[in-house]
Amino acid sequence: MRERPLLFIDLEMTGLDSRVHEIVEVAALVVRQSDFAILNSYYTKVIAEHPETAHPESIKIINYSPAAWKDAVPLKQVLLELSALAPDCILAGWSVQNEWDFLVAALDKYHLPYFFDYHLLEVWALAYSRLRLHPGVKKLDIQETCNIFDIAVERHKPDSDIRATYEIFIKLVGDGNNKNSAD
What we know:
This protein is of the alpha/beta class. 35% of the residues lie in helices and 20% in strands.
């Protein structure tokens, strides 16, 4: 378990239902467990195969448009790249169960093997255990937690969200003196 890399991952999707909606943006950080150093990072936009099924609010939140996604890549390619980037990893994220559901659906769709362990590392749960009684917390979400720890974040931008999630994780469990080798 301790030898597996952590894959901090954040997805943007065209909605919240993994049976209907699809992944359209991916950001990830590969982190070594021994010292929580960032070993590698990944970001890409993904071609939407069925934009007609997208939830209008989701499209608005992520600023999706065909022009902004002109350089997007196919989902199968993204899955293969993630698999090569962090084989046998443990998925980590703010509320990573949603990412898990979408990744499982996508891997099943393309008959690809799971490249991650069955354990999940939910940073939200760590934040809850540490901040649930904090007097400044009105709503425990990533933005509120970033405010408490003075971490910059641009919401619903997966590369910003995943870096903020990683920084929150370090504040919660790390010693704050780790070296990030791929920043």
